[in-house]
Design goal:
This protein is α+β, with helices and mostly antiparallel strands. It is 20% helix and 49% strand. It is flat and about 65 Å long. The relative contact order is 0.12.
Length: 108
């Protein structure tokens, strides 16, 4: 009995270790993908492309539709320097919509 528990525990540890190893490799459709560090070489010069630091959503519009309040939020990529100062804010095509019932009382 003790030996079977030990065998089961060992098998579970091997499976868990395999899962952790697979999570460290990004993949698309089950195929490994090469990671890009963002550096590109153009005519002998290396140009460093910094990936965005953070994604945020910003309220763009608030309107009333059929007795509801509809808020539209746009996603932005924030690019920061080494000191954490925002250098660039780039809008993306991603939108999120939040709908609220108008004149609805809060009831805890």
């Amino acid at each position: 009995m003790k030996q079977s528990i030990s065998v089961i525990a060992a098998v579970l540890m091997i499976i868990f270790a395999g899962l952790l190893e697979n999570e460290s490799q990004p993949s698309i459709g089950g195929s490994p993908v090469m990671q890009d560090d963002g550096a590109k070489e153009t005519s002998g010069q290396v140009v460093q492309h910094t990936p965005y630091s953070e994604l945020i959503y910003v309220l763009e519009e608030r309107k009333e539709v059929d007795g509801n309040i509809v808020e539209t939020y746009r996603e932005y990529e924030l690019y920061e320097d080494k000191n954490g100062n925002i250098q660039k804010r780039v809008p993306t095509e991603n939108l999120q919509y939040m709908t609220y019932k108008k004149n609805m009382a809060y009831r805890p």
